[in-house]
Amino acid sequence: MKILKEIADWTYSLAIALAMAIVINAFVFQPTRVVGSSMEPNLHNNDYVFVSKLSHTFVGTPDYGDIVIIDSRVFRERGVKDDLADPVSTYLSVVKLAEVDTHIWIKRIVGKPGDTIEIKDGQVYRNGSVLDEPYIKETMRAAAPKKVTVPSNQVYVLGDNRNNSSDSRYIGPVPVSHVLGKVVWVL
């Protein structure tokens, strides 16, 4: 009987610790792994980053230049269920027990609500002024000009490796509710 009580105590303690870890990862702080080359030269495939989730939890708008993780499924609502499920799959990917969810992207904020973002001649303009972007990998290949006004409660995100990045040029502005956190530390 003493062994059964000990096993029950350990099981209870592990369940509480796991629940606390999920809540912390969902709403406070989360490790994650970079997948792909869209943020080169600053972040590389398999780099580990730590993300503060406080801006997402308290619905804050990120600042220009912030590197954030987003849910790229911009045409669906996010709920608490997503906030709880995403960290579990991300944690499993960090310890390499599962692949990273392909809908979670890491990008840089270049536009906030009300900004007009224009991409022309390989340059990004915000409200008519060309952005100084020393962090990008290389000059963006010229494509068809694009001009977007960022709606309220949304942001415009781009990868630092503009020639190899899926970002707001393809999915459009991202709802602030889909900005899951800000990268605060890179390993």
UniProtKB/TrEMBL annotation:
Pfam families tied to this protein: Peptidase_S26 (PF10502)
Gene3D superfamilies noted in UniProt: Umud Fragment, subunit A
One Gene Ontology MF term: signal peptidase activity
The protein's Enzyme Commission number: 3.4.21.89
Record flagged with keyword Hydrolase: yes
Subcellular location: Cell membrane; Membrane
Membrane topology: Single-pass type II membrane protein
Keyword hit for S-adenosyl-L-methionine: no
Keywords, sorted A to Z: Hydrolase, Membrane, Protease, Transmembrane, Transmembrane helix
Residue stretches spanning the membrane: 12-29
Superkingdom, taxonomy of origin: Bacteria
Domain Peptidase S26: residue ranges: 8-186
InterPro entries assigned: LexA/Signal_pep-like_sf, Pept_S26A_signal_pept_1, Pept_S26A_signal_pept_1_CS, Pept_S26A_signal_pept_1_Lys-AS, Peptidase_S26
Reactions accelerated catalytically: Cleavage of hydrophobic, N-terminal signal or leader sequences from secreted and periplasmic proteins
Entry similarity comment: Belongs to the peptidase S26 family.
UniProt xrefs under NCBIfam families: sigpep_I_bact
Protein name as it appears in the record: Signal peptidase I
